[in-house]
Amino acid sequence: MAFDPRQIMKAFPILESGTGKNTLHYLDNAATAQVPNAVINAMVAHDAGRRANVKRGIHRLAESATAAYENARESVARFIGVQNPAEIIFTSGTTHGINLLAHSLGNTLKPGDEILLSPVEHHSNLVPWQMLQDRFGIHINFLPMDDNGLIDTGSITEYITPRTRIVSLSHGSNVTGALTDTAALGDAVHEHGAVLILDGAQVIPHGPVDLPALKADFYVFSGHKAYGPSGIGVLWGRMEQLEKVSPVFSGGEMIGDVKLLTSTYAEIPHRFEAGTPPITQAVGLGAALDWLHRLDQPGLNRHLMTLTTQVINGLQHLSVESNAIRIIHPAMDTGRLPIISFIVRGIHPHDVCQFLSDRYDIALRGGFHCAQPLHEQLGLPEGSTRVSLAAFNTQEDVDILLEGIAECMRILL
Amino acid sequence: MTEDIYQDPIIRLSKQREHDGFLDSPDIRGTADNPLCGDRVTVELDISDGIIRHMKYQVRGCLLTRASCANLAGMIEGVDISGIHRLRNEFNRALSSQGSDRHEFPPPVAVFSPVAPHKSRHSCLLLPYDAVIDAMDAQVSAD
Ligand SMILES: Cc1ncc(COP(=O)(O)O)c(C=O)c1O
What we know:
The structure holds two protein chains of two kinds.
Chain A: H1 5-10, E1 25-26, H2 37-49, H3 60-79, E2 88-91, H4 94-106, E3 114-117, H5 127-136, E4 139-142, H6 156-159, E5 164-170, H7 185-191, E6 195-199, E7 218-222, E8 233-237, H8 239-242, E9 255-258, E10 263-265, H9 279-294, H10 297-318, E11 325-328, E12 339-344, H11 349-360, E13 362-363, E14 365-367, H12 372-377, E15 384-388, H13 395-412
Parallel strand pairs in A: 1-13, 3-4, 3-5, 5-6, 6-7
Antiparallel strand pairs in A: 2-8, 7-8, 9-10, 11-12, 12-15, 14-15
Helix pairs in contact in A: 2-9, 3-9, 4-5, 10-13, 11-13
Chain B: H1 8-15, E1 28-34, E2 39-48, E3 51-60, H2 63-75, H3 81-96, H4 122-142
Antiparallel strand pairs in B: 1-2, 2-3
The structure holds pyridoxal-5'-phosphate.
């Protein structure tokens, strides 16, 4: 079916006020997207009809809860183009996934080993690695980025060394919307015997991805940005890499044979899922990715890029005379996400957001978006204002946004 | 939609520049940061006998922080350390109180009453007070 954002909107109860008329203009999807009925209904149906613990129970509900949980794993695998669902590990989100890797891979590091990151990273792909510096005596290096916040992955051969063990990069920026060019990464990383981790938190919400083709070893993302619930996320790893990783969390559900002083571990992926997992949330994530997968992908992508272009052109238009707006954006032709960050010179991002919320019920994000080093390198000490689009956004959202920003500039400047 | 905080008196205050800048030779200086948003206020004070005579400030922050800086600088003359704590407490109580427990805004800060429902913005208004307290505390410990 051809892509129709009006139809999509109807699937999101939060967008329909009591009168059936939408007053909310939700443009903070990179922080958390809204959930469609398909996801809400799937979670309610699970809790109302199949709620039980998974894996070990031998009763009707436990078996159907386990099946639902494993079905969700299969939905994720289908969405990211992975043949073996056992490579999907449920986490609580991107941050959890990166921490899991930082701890487990970190335990194998030796003094003098190196980790390669970029200045674009979200704090969750920065701080967990920083914490390894003192514990293991390792060094962190950074790939350079350009003035628009694009990571220069082509220069990886200059920055990777025989001591580099881990390369962990954003697959798509939550600030600039830049998609990272991964073509040069996989081979360079593997030639040096290192592993490649990609943070896909902002990429997964925009459609299915063929992960194995990216040549990454690990990939992480969150459910709540991909039309799913919070409290659930995914760590994907190539089986041969997962086999080398020892679990960092332990307890029930992740073990094989337990003696008083020693234990064996369960099979992958269960050995990485200690304790009762977020079962209802996994079911919700499966439903979200199935829902997203069923949309007309080229139509969705065209829609989002059309709106993105309109936002960028509209902001540039507002700034023609005053030059008051600076957009941080990669060129449209390099492949990008529907995320646009900008500053209005003379108006703090928090004031832009508050003004538009108070007067227009527009939801934006203002500040550093958990990427303070990126903002500082781009010379933006007050952060930026971010517009992030999703399938349910419409032309009307963009029109009202631009009208609101014009009004904000008129009154506050 | 909640109450609009961008009302003329607040906007006007935010554009006042009378006390924005540096003193020639300040007696004390203090800084307060809001780590959540990166906002920072630095104040310079002339004091004698523990009493503030003049204040100037430098601010990197939002409109509310600017407005509150201008407002505080305009009313701070003659205030001592206990006075600045009292002003902050009264302001904070008026911002935070609701319903039947509602505390009145002291007249000099009543202009900010529309901000009360926006809890996430209270710290913007209180930042200049914290910078003055930081300056006065440093002075007390140096004495
Ligand atoms: C690029 C990127 N990485 C990581 C995260 C962290 O995600 P979460 O808070 O869901 O763990 C986010 C979300 O803010 C993000 O945008």
